[in-house]
Design goal:
This protein has about 280 residues and is of the alpha/beta class. It has a single domain, classed as Phosphatidylinositol (PI) phosphodiesterase (TIM Barrel, Alpha-Beta Barrel). It is about 30% helix and about 15% strand. It has an eight-stranded parallel β-barrel, surrounded by five helices. Helix 2 links the parallel strand 1 and strand 2. Helix 5 packs parallel to helix 6. The radius of gyration is 19 Å and the shape is globular. The protein starts with a helix and ends in a 6-residue tail after the last helix. It comes from Hymenobacter negativus. InterPro entries: GP_PDE_dom, PLC-like_Pdiesterase_TIM-brl. This is GP-PDE domain-containing protein.
Length: about 280
């Protein structure tokens, strides 16, 4: 292979790329890197920020007593000592649960789920309030079919109240949904907040049409399936592009070739090194 061919495969580094930790520091991994921190846990969030990330993406759900919680999985038993759904337990019960990732992760991690208010209070003590992407978990799998989204309006209002209570700068917030109706709810509850529509790659054309109709500012695409052509189409339509995922060097090079504006990455350190920003 010639030198010219090698250089053409190297992604161009966007100096304005915003790097966020995906669910904090990503998900449990045994190597490259070893990550024992649960997704959307405080220790995972803190680690990503200490490594130099510009912000974090987190997953939000609502407890039985209408408190917004950080939790990734649909069912508590999939990642903690609890059972059922977040919506079936009070915030006091949820914060007493232990995260579980199995061996060897549980030998090291001693994390408990936290509330969104707790996170905002801690981020307010950070030297500079980081970017936060709020991934709304809208489908409550413990409700009957046809009713699984019925608490979304209250969840949106509670998120808005927490952001206002802690004076979170809305220019640092991206509210992510897969539903056009939720876009409208977010705008009504949080005037000025940036809203992103997550689009499945196999439904890109339909999703882009919805994004245009709802006049969102940002589209959110999966790192495993996004193509440079999709990203270019989104940019041509006036959208910012957020890509989520990516851990290996090969994955990150491929994602960087799509020229995103922001990446929610599973390996903050590796991406920052590739950007020439060090990586602690």
């Amino acid at each position: 292979m010639t030198l010219a061919a090698c250089t053409t495969t190297k992604p161009v580094v966007n100096p304005n790329l915003v790097v966020l930790g995906h669910a904090g520091s990503g998900f449990y991994t045994p190597i490259s890197p070893f990550n024992y921190r649960p997704p959307s846990s405080w220790r995972g969030i803190r680690r990503a920020l200490l490594r130099g990330a510009d912000g974090v993406e987190i997953d939000l759900q609502m407890s039985r007593d209408s408190v917004v919680m950080l939790y990734h999985d649909q069912h508590l038993q999939d990642g903690s000592t609890g059972t059922g759904c977040v919506s079936q337990r009070t915030a006091a019960e949820l914060t007493q649960l232990r995260y579980q990732g199995g061996f060897p992760y549980d030998l090291i991690q001693k994390e408990h789920p936290i509330t969104f208010d707790t996170l905002l209070a801690r981020l307010n003590r950070w030297p500079s309030f980081p970017f936060i992407h709020l991934d709304l978990h809208e489908d409550d799998q413990c409700l009957p079919p046809g009713r699984q989204n019925e608490k979304v309006p209250l969840l949106v209002r509670q998120i808005a109240r927490s952001l206002a209570r802690y004076h979170a700068p809305l220019n640092k917030v991206l509210f992510i949904t897969q539903d056009g109706a939720t876009v409208r709810l977010a705008r009504a509850a949080m005037p000025g907040v940036r809203v992103g529509l997550e689009i499945a790659s196999d439904e890109f054309a339909v999703g882009l049409k919805t994004a245009k109709a709802e006049k969102v500012q940002t589209v959110v695409l999966d790192a495993d399936r996004v193509t440079p052509e999709q990203s270019a189409q989104a940019h041509a339509a006036g959208f910012k592009v957020v890509v989520f995922g990516g851990r290996s060097a090969g994955d990150l090079r491929r994602v960087l070739r799509t020229q995103p504006d922001e990446i929610e990455v599973d390996n903050v350190r590796r991406l920052l090194i590739m950007q020439g920003r060090g990586g602690k």
